[in-house]
């Protein structure tokens, strides 16, 4: 009898370890604490029962391989970190990971450190001691991207080596390694040996967004679930969530390691001709900055639902995503309806879960009338 119990206990423990489905990986972007009014988001605004993992974005990398603190930590950063760690009192199961990199860090330092065994070792040592010092549960690397933006061709191989060394060191201490990777097929071909990248990560957060934006001179949704009949080139037809995820699967990434990256934001344009709001219609730059996110061409879901609820709303039946229009402003984004459809897609592919960039642009205060965190709740209610 006791033997049977032992076997049952072993079997259920094994199931817990091997069943990685249900990940909700949420990014906390430290700079959002400086936003004005209802846009101000602090670590204590996080609901730790809506996320399985919270990723602190970002720290940087120095040329000597050590972790650098990007935010003004002496003043408010350390306090925010303490607040973040205090979320474990509300949910002891939530994992809090340190995230390094991001778009603004570029690629060059990562390329140089990854190429040099001594610098890689210095990075592993520095990351582990930083994690120890502040009590993180793991590490997330957002190198954007190997072989691009100041990187070199050898990055493709060196990235895998770096991940392998980080993963061994972290796993030996019972911690995990994740990375944010591109969801664009052309970008993936430049940057990754996907099967080997997958082997050397515990979780793969595929950034299945930013397929279109004000970096192009025409209208496009930042994260369509599926292609549109208006897509013309072969590349345009693959700039969507379904194609990007399918590429990672086809190249050998195990579905259980993949988290589908979702946005709680959007990207917008100023239309060249306000009467032509079609996909691929001409634009002359990004949409006007929102009062909270304060960047041209970018908008938070919280801004859309709180401030632009009177704009004309359109649903694209092919792409399965919404956009709103007023005058010459065209904003494509995700709302709880499109998020639900994307999570259903993740379920249909048996993915490990989803990743969300980022906590601060959900309607975290519940101002729009559907309770706090409508996007994260749509995820929670849909994800298997
Ligand atoms: C809108 O712009 C697209 C892309 O340039 C063009 O193909 C289409 O004919 C335009 N539609 C109208 C109504 O002008």
From TrEMBL:
PROSITE patterns: GH18_1 (PS01095), GH18_2 (PS51910). It comes from the Eukaryota. GO terms for molecular function: chitin binding; chitinase activity. GO terms for cellular component: extracellular region. GO terms for biological process: carbohydrate metabolic process; chitin catabolic process. Gene3D superfamilies: 3.10.50.10, Glycosidases (3.20.20.80). Pfam families: Glyco_hydro_18. Residues 1-21 form the signal peptide. Residues 22-384 form the GH18 domain. Belongs to the glycosyl hydrolase 18 family. This is Chitinase 16. It comes from Tribolium castaneum. The lineage of its organism: Eukaryota, Metazoa, Ecdysozoa, Arthropoda, Hexapoda.
């Amino acid at each position: 009898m006791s033997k049977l119990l032992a076997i049952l206990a072993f079997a259920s423990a094994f199931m817990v370890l091997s069943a990685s489905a249900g990940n909700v990986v949420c990014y906390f972007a430290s700079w959002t604490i400086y936003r004005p009014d209802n846009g101000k988001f602090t670590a204590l605004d996080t609901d730790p029962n809506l996320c399985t993992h919270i990723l602190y974005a970002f720290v940087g990398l120095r040329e000597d391989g050590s972790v650098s603190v990007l935010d003004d930590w002496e003043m408010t950063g350390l306090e925010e970190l303490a607040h973040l760690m205090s979320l474990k009192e509300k949910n002891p199961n939530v994992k809090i990971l340190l995230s390094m990199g991001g778009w603004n860090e570029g690629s060059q330092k990562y390329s140089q450190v990854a190429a040099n065994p001594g610098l890689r070792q210095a990075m592993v040592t520095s990351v582990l001691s930083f994690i120890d010092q502040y009590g993180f549960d793991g590490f997330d690397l957002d190198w954007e991207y190997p072989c691009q933006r100041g990187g070199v061709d050898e990055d493709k191989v060196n990235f895998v080596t770096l991940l392998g060394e980080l993963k061994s060191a972290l796993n030996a201490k019972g911690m995990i390694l994740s990375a944010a990777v591109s969801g664009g097929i052309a970008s993936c071909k430049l940057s990754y040996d996907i099967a080997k990248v997958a082997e050397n990560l515990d979780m793969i957060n595929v950034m299945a967004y930013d397929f279109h934006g004000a970096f192009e001179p025409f209208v496009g949704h930042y994260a369509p679930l599926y292609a549109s009949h208006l897509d013309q080139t072969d590349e345009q037809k693959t700039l969507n969530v379904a194609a990007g995820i399918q590429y990672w699967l086809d190249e050998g990434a195990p579905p259980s390691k993949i988290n589908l990256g979702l946005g709680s934001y959007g990207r917008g344009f100023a239309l060249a001709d306000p009467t032509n709001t079609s996909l691929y219609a001409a634009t002359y730059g990004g949409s006007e900055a929102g009062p909270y996110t304060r960047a041209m061409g970018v908008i938070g879901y919280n801004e859309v639902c709180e401030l632009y609820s009177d704009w004309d709303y359109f649903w694209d039946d092919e792409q399965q995503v919404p956009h709103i229009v007023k005058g010459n402003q065209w904003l494509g984004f995700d709302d709880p309806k499109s998020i639900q459809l994307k999570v259903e897609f993740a379920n249909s592919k048996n993915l490990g879960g989803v990743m969300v960039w980022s906590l601060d642009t959900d309607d975290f205060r519940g101002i729009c009338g559907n309770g706090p965190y409508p996007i994260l709740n749509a995820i929670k209610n849909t994800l298997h």
